[in-house]
Amino acid sequence: MLLRLWPEKTKVSFMNLRFVALIISVAALLASAAMLATRGLNLGIDFAGGAVIEITQPEDISADDIRAAVQPLIVGEVQVNSARGTGPNAPDIAVVRFKPQPPVGDETGDEAQNRAGDEVSAALRTLVDADLPDGESRFEIRSEASVGPKVSGELFRSGIIALSVALALMMVYISFRFQWQYALGAVAALFHDVILTMGMFALTAFEFNLATIAALLTIVGYSMNDTVIVFDRVREEARKYKKLELSKVVDLAINATMSRTLLTSGTTLLALLSIFIFGGPVLRGMSFALIFGVIVGTYSSIFVASAVVLLLGIDRGDKPKREVEGFQGAG
Amino acid sequence: MLNFPLWKVGLILVILVWGTILALPNMFSDGFLGIEPREPSDPSNQVAMAAYEQQMQEVEDSWWFLPAGKLNLGLDLQGGVYLLMEIDPAEIAANRLNTVQADIRTALNRNPLVERNPPVQNEDRLTIEILNPEEDMDEAVRRLNRINPTIGTTQTKLFNVERTGDQFIQLTVPGNARTALASDAQSKMMEIIRRRIDPDGVAEISITPQGDNRIILEAPGEADPKRIKDILSQAGRLTFNMANLDQSAIRAAVTSGRPPPREILVDSIDYGQILINRIPELTGADIATANRCFDEANFPAVCFRLNSSAATKFYNLTRNNMNRNFAIVLDGTSMSSPTIRSPIPGGNVIIEGRFSIEEAEDLAAIIEAGELPAKLNFLDERTVGPTLGAESIAAGSRASLIGLALVGVFMVLAYGLVGGFAVGSLMANIVMIIGALSGFGATLTLPGIAGIILTIGMAVDANVIVFERIREEQANGRSPATAIQAGYERALSAILDANITTFIAASILYMVGSGPVKGFAVTLAIGILTSVFTAFVVTRWFTVLYLRTFRPKRLAM
Questions:
Q1: Is A37 on the interface with B (CB under 8 A)?
Q2: Which of A142, A176, B180, B290 has the smallest set of CB atoms within 10 Å of its CB?
Q3: What is the ipTM of this complex?
């Protein structure tokens, strides 16, 4: 017998659960909003500016040594974190972070940031190479990023614009392919997913950066994908059973697509888990967002998107209304 | 839906084979399956290098049937420096206005002389006070308008000439001129940057414009952003000025703060401070070539050759000023202030200083590339070292393989044989993504690898939707053939709708994203296209082939 994630014929009444789901969703949204308001997002340097310098950390130099060398050059706190290198015999890694530097004299903020970054690199090199003979070096920059205030502001704005444009375009597309009630339902679900994911980032203090925006956009795409599959089935069942109560129609559609929903979410989650676990530290934040987003997106296409459609009702006029059918197959 | 006429099968095969051919060169990126000649350990050994390159060429020639394009690895995977720089349009305007001051002087000095106070420049605004406005005003305005230069290849004039008050003329740089200046400066600066960073034209650096006044530099393999920024921070303004090394005159100028008329004090790398003539004899524009060389004591130095008219000028200058000093001044610092012992013909000049080889090379590149029209501001700087890049590639490939294996096992467990077909088309999908990325010359970044893995997870979706439909239809008592037919027909609209919305998200990401994020958008978008194709065409073809060959009573799924 082949693996079944969902029994073949089911009649679970999802829409009867929609008020329970409403309470859960509203509570989660409120919690997210509260998290965002009180803890805020842990903005990475893409959006907050500042610098992150990652070097290999020799055994005889401690994080405190590094902090002591760098702190005098920097206004505000310098964070130094040490991490084990990945792989056997890999040297340890030290990550030095500091916030955007205030300009001195007639410098611009960008120049101040740039100067601080150069000074810190030079100080780190001096510290690491202090006891070596002249001309030898064991200093290795693994990665370095320094973002001035001008660009970080722009990146943040363009990220927000990208999200908004994506939401708007999807709404237009769905209204075009379905009815406007579906579009509202779908967009409600997308907002739900985006806000919950951001709330999760506030809660866990995972770094929120450009890759996270990319993840959010992908979540928007994925959640939409999921929602469309359910909607497509709702539309089909609504045509087939014209007299049936709408909530029953929605239930039929959800039950029919449930096996697919679980299988697709399952394979996507398997792929994402493999990135999260094996993909290295650079991709961890992004894959975390995607994993959370896929779970929330699956939930929302059932309990938010469909519930909103049920709330708004759909146009089921008896005369076969000529909808834009495009590539609708001959059902 | 179950008909696969010969032409359709042919088309599928052509697309699959084409994708495979495009993807194939990547298999050979690390040494043509081990038959690549070994790179000599000492790159300065020219005989060994030449032999190596010839062998490489022969190996490449023997693979002539493969396309040349391989996946470009992003800076986050191969390591390198990314720099976003900006030029300030107001500064360019001010600099440009400053350079026409000499023309203004000449124009107003012509007979009949226009009497005026020295022009006062405040950023991109130049005010001239005319002393006899009744007689000279109209003539002065006419002459200024005549010397008003056009910008670059445009028809835009540099400044507006306006009268303010009774006796003032104001030159301002209008907005359209600023824009023209900025874009003119942008293309000039891109060229200068290239010549400074990569004087020999061998490195694979990329320099691209962004907006009107920004430039992106990407230098793969470079690990030291500081060196690049140092080379680009220098204005590179080189002049030859007559110099005055008289110690008492210098001391007097330093203490009083007032150098003799027509002279200025500058720092000198060998004498503390020296006095030089305010007006230079030659400028950087007179230099034909510059390169690193060695001086008589075998220290690295910078040699350069003047162009022919400047060489004549320099010969006359040295002949007329025997036993005096001249200074070679770079960005306000005298690099060298030799005494003229004999007239110097030929226009060959050497700057001696105790440089390191690298310093001398960088200096030569800066001098030869010429002066930057404005200062570059560094806005965003990212460096990835080669170690982290290699680790990212390893982690990315590991995650892809594990992800693929997990999804494959899951699909076979869920759908049996047909699930196996889906896994087969999933493999084809990955080959096609890699082929498409190589063919378009797109850049693969670490988030791009994540995009491929995500596509692996999501690509099965189209298959799953279809399989679920087929299951339903079979459960309703249809035969395998009609169930498959109905399954594919019914699933089409849902699959297209779902994938178009994801495609919208990917396109927006491509438009607003930068660097690694753009790489993610590209693989996601390509992945959507290929996965719809493979699920809808390739898996179906496999299934139909199976159906025709074995004629099963029922599909086990």
A1: no
A2: A176
A3: 0.83
